[in-house]
């Protein structure tokens, strides 16, 4: 739904070629929906109207003290955080729902195209929000907790799908992180 129409048309036009690649594959790895779910804090901020006010303040010649006062009084940031987290929860739940539907559909489609002759590896997700805890303050705790729950839910669902199929395997992000510095998967 978020894909540009020209890109969707290009992908539809590649259908036969993609199916041929899949049929010839022995091993297919998948990571799906990470950006849709974990970019939810930014999507929520962009849709809230807070972003416009914040960008205007950042573009001004405001001192650090004036900026802090702006956040606390004019923008009433602390009062808006409650609404922000309610909206974030809605965006996250929608993203997780789409993730579940799309992941299962993709695995079913790949198995249909390949006749289950290819192994499918669902690669778990690294949680970048855990690294932010070293900079954590009490205002960020609900955000970090929500994002940690979202990453766990995605990994748990990958594991559930792997249990449903003989040719589907789940690899935890910690196992994969051996191949990447500091566990970074992106």
Largest sheet descriptor = 3 strands, parallel
Low-confidence stretches are 175-180
Number of helices: 9
Which structural category do the helix and sheet elements fall into?
Answer: mainly alpha
How many beta-strand runs? 3
Strands of the largest sheet, in order across it? 1-2-3
Mean pLDDT score, rounded?
A: 75
Strand content: 5-15%
Q: What is the overall shape? A: elongated
Distance between the termini: 22 Å
SSE topology string: HHEHHHHHEHEH
- The helix fraction, in percent, is 55-70%
Radius of gyration: 20 Å
Notes on the structure:
By secondary structure, the chain is mainly alpha-helical. It has nine helices and three strands. It has a three-stranded parallel beta sheet. It is elongated. The relative contact order is 0.14.
Keywords:
single chain; 186 residues; mainly alpha; three-stranded parallel beta sheet; 9 helices; 65% helix
Topology:
Layout: H1 5-13, H2 15-24, E1 27-30, H3 34-38, H4 40-48, H5 50-59, H6 64-74, H7 77-114, E2 119-123, H8 141-164, E3 168-171, H9 173-176
Helix pairs in contact: 4-7, 7-8
Summarize the structure.
This protein has 186 residues and is mainly alpha-helical.
């Amino acid at each position: 739904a978020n894909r540009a129409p020209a890109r969707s048309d290009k992908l539809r036009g590649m259908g036969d070629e993609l199916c041929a690649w899949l049929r010839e594959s022995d091993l297919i790895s998948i990571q799906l929906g990470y950006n849709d779910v974990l970019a939810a804090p930014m999507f929520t901020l962009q849709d809230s109207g807070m972003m416009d006010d914040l960008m205007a303040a950042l573009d001004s010649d405001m001192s650090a003290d004036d900026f802090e006062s702006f956040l606390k009084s004019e923008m009433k940031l602390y009062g808006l955080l409650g609404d922000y987290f309610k909206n974030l929860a809605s965006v996250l739940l929608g993203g997780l729902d789409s993730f579940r539907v799309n992941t299962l559909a993709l695995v079913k489609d790949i198995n249909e195209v390949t006749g289950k002759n290819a192994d499918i590896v669902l690669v778990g997700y690294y949680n970048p929000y855990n690294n932010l805890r070293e900079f954590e303050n009490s205002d960020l705790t609900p955000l970090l907790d929500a994002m940690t729950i979202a990453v766990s839910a995605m990994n748990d669902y990958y594991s559930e799908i792997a249990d449903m199929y003989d040719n589907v395997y789940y690899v935890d992000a910690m196992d994969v992180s051996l191949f990447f510095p500091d566990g970074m998967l992106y």
